[in-house]
Amino acid sequence: MTKSFPGILHMLASIAFITIIGAAFYEHAAVVPVWSAAPPRSLSMFQGEYGLQAVNFWKPVHPVAILLLAAALVTNWRRPSRKQLLIVVGGYLTILVITAAYFVPELLAITTSAFSQAVNTDLAGRAQMWETLSLVRLGGLLVLAMVLLYGLSAKQVEN
User: Fold this and answer.
1) What pLDDT was estimated at residue 153?
2) Residue ranges per structural domain of the chain
3) Contact status, residue 128 vs residue 76, Cβ threshold 8 Å
């Protein structure tokens, strides 16, 4: 294994991880404000033959990021950046478990609600709570990205 291979894997893992954050920012800026505005009336963007299928992005991107992070961790095991990679892998897996347990089921429950012209205040409250907690989750991902990039920069100084 060449000396630069672990660094390349760390960079690829960082790109994959930060891509996820960029997509989450996009959704919070462009998609969430629309569907959470007045549910169930505002949920039409998810329904029908041409409804938004965000799962087509989210489902494959997480396994790619996990594989790259795992490969970076393995190849950097004897380097100082191991600590940052361990923190990021552990934090990211924790976030994914929470996402699978709460965020995905709650989002599906909200977005698959039957269309109605009347705004459902209970549904609107759940949508607002989902958005608030999702922003907290995004903040956690940002902190993990800083840790990941710090490990990359520390390694570059070391080499």
Assistant:
1) 83
2) 5-158
3) no
